[in-house]
Design goal:
38% helix; binds adenosine-5'-triphosphate; binds magnesium ion; elongated; ATP-binding; alpha/beta; Rossmann fold; single chain; DNA binding; 12 strands
Length: 514
């Protein structure tokens, strides 16, 4: 029997050796043909059948997949995440039960035991911010994600934005029509008037605060003076539009006095090397991207390369802060920033939202009211936007457990030793316990039965609108109103009175005639 098995095995081996290569070739050819056939057939069918395209409805935000956080770290960037979440719903969801006024995300890193979202607040935390980095390091993208988040979470009566771009405004397409946008300077010619407008607004606010006996904006409680966040996209363009000394003087004055007036600046540029940097004493947070030269580290963070290296080492020896000149070069290092606040140095990667995502978020923000025609978006509208964003129905839940589908998000933990003092606050379960949607109750500003604002805020600031509506109840004509408020009966001030009265239906001329 043994010899028969031997014979059979030998025959099989010989057959494989003889015909095997040919059969293998035929099999591969068949597979290639099949692949080609399968990919071609639908394309041909589509071309011939060509059914009328069915318009697909815009996918609701909730249709976005929210996979768990990817904790991979980007090499050479401390503990910055390589692929931070690219959907704003992550952040909205994570902060939903712990809303803090004027909170904004900085970037993602790995904390001590988990993924961490580093953040800051424009009230009770940081004042003005400096944002720097080599070309294509992601400065504008950083600002867009921060301002989008701020606008999502704060209604236009609480937050207004001024964007001084000067490069054509391509990063800010669509922002000009939004109720949050108080100023959008797109072209180089717009820069000087924008600087002047900012100065006037600061002066006007100081006058209002003085009249209300307030030492600072935080004390002012009439609810009609929104925080104004100013983003200066490229500081060198402001210098080109003015001069080195003029810019330095303007920055010094504005940054020094704006804080008390409820104005916060994010001053951006490739580097502040060789600029007059007296104003830097007003900066409380540095967000610094890649720099090709080591001597650029100090002007952009206040620390030298060697100091940053020392400060960037955590107690357990982990490198969490990397000097800008040693960060990965863009495009690999795009969106990677070393944040410096006081003596805390942390490197992180900002979330990046692609164009479709940015535009979708923008489309959900309230538009500017048409001139004096209808009212601005109120808090209730804003709430419904947020609900839509995170996939809630109209009823707000009382606990986070009903909001967060189990397992779709890993808990974000505070980056304990490395957070800039404000890493995402502990894990979500702590905020779940609070459960309340504090800060999301509708509270439209109503004065003498008129819900404000009645006209766009860039046309007439909210506090101005309130004063006009308030005073209208005490006088019998618009001329008297103008006189009472501005000690004049004509000019630009009268036009403002007219615009607001028309929109609110106050002191209508025909009513007087009747
Ligand atoms: N957080 C990020 N993660 C990954 N890639 C990013 C990130 N931010 C920006 N990028 C990439 O870098 C590119 C440049 O970004 P952006 O225009 O914001 O840079 P910039 O610093 O403003 O450039 P410039 O100095 O030329 O104005 C983006 O188009 C994008 O591809
Ligand atoms: Mg840019």
């Amino acid at each position: 029997m043994g010899w028969m098995y031997g014979f059979l095995c030998g025959a099989i081996v010989l057959t494989i050796l003889r015909y095997g290569p040919g059969l293998w070739r035929d099999w591969r050819a068949f597979q290639a043909w099949r692949l080609q056939h399968e990919t071609l057939v639908p394309a041909v069918a589509l071309a011939t059948a060509a059914p009328a395209p069915v318009p697909t409805p815009e996918p609701p935000l909730t249709s976005y997949e929210l996979p768990a956080y990817d904790p991979t770290i980007l090499a050479g960037a401390g503990l910055a995440l390589k692929n931070p979440p690219s959907n704003i719903a992550y952040i909205v969801k994570a902060k939903l039960h712990d809303p803090e006024p004027y909170w904004f995300p900085l970037g993602w890193s790995y904390g001590v035991t988990d993924v961490a979202l580093n953040s800051a607040k424009f009230v009770g935390d940081v004042n003005h911010v400096a944002l720097t980095g080599f070309t294509d390091s992601g400065k504008d993208s950083w600002a867009v994600q921060a301002l989008l988040y701020l606008a999502l979470m704060n209604t236009p009566d609480k937050l207004q934005l001024a964007i001084v771009d000067g490069k054509g405004g391509l990063s800010w397409l669509g922002w000009g029509d939004k109720a949050h946008t108080w100023l959008l300077a797109k072209r180089i010619d717009d820069i000087r008037p924008a600087m002047e407008k900012l100065k006037q607004e600061r002066e006007r606010r100081i006058e209002v605060l003085e009249a209300a006996n307030c030492e600072k904006w935080e004390e002012y409680d009439k609810g009609d003076m929104p925080l104004l966040v100013v983003f200066v996209s490229e500081l060198m363009l402001l210098q080109d539009a003015t001069s080195k000394t003029e810019l330095a003087d303007w920055l010094n004055t504005e940054l020094t006095s704006s804080r008390a007036a409820g104005i916060r600046y994010i001053v951006s540029g490739q580097t502040f090397t060789r600029m007059d940097t007296r104003w830097r004493s007003q900066i409380s947070l540095y967000i610094a991207g890649y720099q090709p030269r080591g001597d650029a580290d100090e002007p952009n963070t206040t620390f030298t390369t060697a100091e940053l290296k020392k400060l960037g080492i955590r107690r357990d020896g982990a490198v969490i802060g990397v000097p800008p000149s040693e960060l990965p070069v863009p495009p690999d290092g795009a969106g990677v920033f070393t944040c410096v606040q006081g003596r805390m140095v942390v490197t992180m990667r900002a979330p990046y939202y692609d164009k479709a995502h940015r535009q979708m978020i923008l489309s959900k923000l309230p538009d500017k009211p048409k001139k004096a025609l209808h009212r601005n978006a109120d808090q209730a509208l804003h709430d419904s936007l947020l609900r839509n964003l995170i996939g809630l129905d109209t009823t707000l839940p009382s606990t986070a457990s009903s909001v967060l589908p189990s397992g779709d998000l890993l808990p974000v933990r505070e980056a304990a030793a490395l957070s800039l003092g404000k890493g995402m606050e502990a894990d979500l379960s702590a905020s779940e316990k609070r459960g309340k949607m504090a800060g999301f109750e509708p509270h439209p500003l109503t004065v003498n039965g008129v819900a404000l604002p009645v006209v766009a805020l860039d046309e007439v600031p909210l506090d101005e609108q309130r004063r006009i509506v308030e005073t209208a109840a005490t006088v019998s004509s618009r001329g008297q109103l103008c006189q009472a408020l501005y000690e004049t009966r004509g000019g630009r001030k009268y036009t403002i009175v007219q615009i607001v009265c028309d929109a609110a239906g106050l002191l209508m001329p025909q009513a007087k005639a009747a």
